[in-house]
Write the structure tokens for this entry.
Amino acid sequence: MEEQGRKKRMRWQLPFLIFLIIATVLIVRHQRDMPYQQNSGMVFSTIYNITYQCDSDLQWSIEQELKKVDQCLSPFNETSLITAINNNKDTLTDKTFEYVFNLALKVSEETGGDFDITVAPLVNAWGFGFKEGITPTQQQIDSLKEIIGYGKVKLQNHKVIKDDKRIMLDCSAIAKGYACDAVASMLARKGVENYMVEIGGEVVTRGVNKKREEWRIGVEKPQDIDTVKTSELQAVIAISDKALATSGNYRNFYYKDGKKYAHTIDPHTGKPVQHNILSATVVAKDCATADAYATAFMVMGLEKAKKILENHNELKAYIIYNDDKGNYQTWSSPKLKVK
């Protein structure tokens, strides 16, 4: 009897197992045959490139996500939430703004203020923001530093409370990263398993590329844009299910009286950074975090950046810098896949 029962179970279990195997093979084959879509466009005055495996084109949905971020965080958008806050209008914050604001404060605290979203007045004074200006005097810098400091703003009952109404917020060093995260989340909600979202050099990846390999992200070689018209790659970093952001000074300068000033402003000194780091690439679980730390590393310099990385195992970095003789050198986290 037991033998007959076992044979009966096998008779219905075997077809079911065969069905599962066939279904799995068909699903895998469909996934491999599914095309990779590619969408490009402009947002935040930069180019976005998004590659994802899907049967349909999702550019409309992508642009809707980007518009939401722009309407919240862009200081160049006269109707954005952050513009209203900077103009001291009685405005309630939303979930997007509060997430980015709280993350910015967290990174600010962990970097000792090397990352600071209240640096906007200094950025504008040096001419890197939404208006051009003359080189500020030391007296002007000292005056502006009085209204700089992440500890001078807070969220309370969905409102930004400022110690001084002249304080302005600048999310440009975290907004592109967050926008990448927002688009990636939308793709995931739609069931997309393989994608690469890139906005102005900030990247979020998931799954594999067309070759069924990890996504490979290039890091530009430091070259003066005045003398080199085409960019070259210094390195290629292989990542999957991670985000990457790069901040660099070698292609972004403000010229005054024939002198170059790096675009990254040190919130402590009120002046462009003077460290030997040329670019900092950070890999993290999300792009907003990677974006913020990449900027912070440009401000703090190589040695302090290494100490931060020692205390944050979830972060990895690839840093290009000048040695004492002015030669290019690189440093990377031990487990980062760099070629």
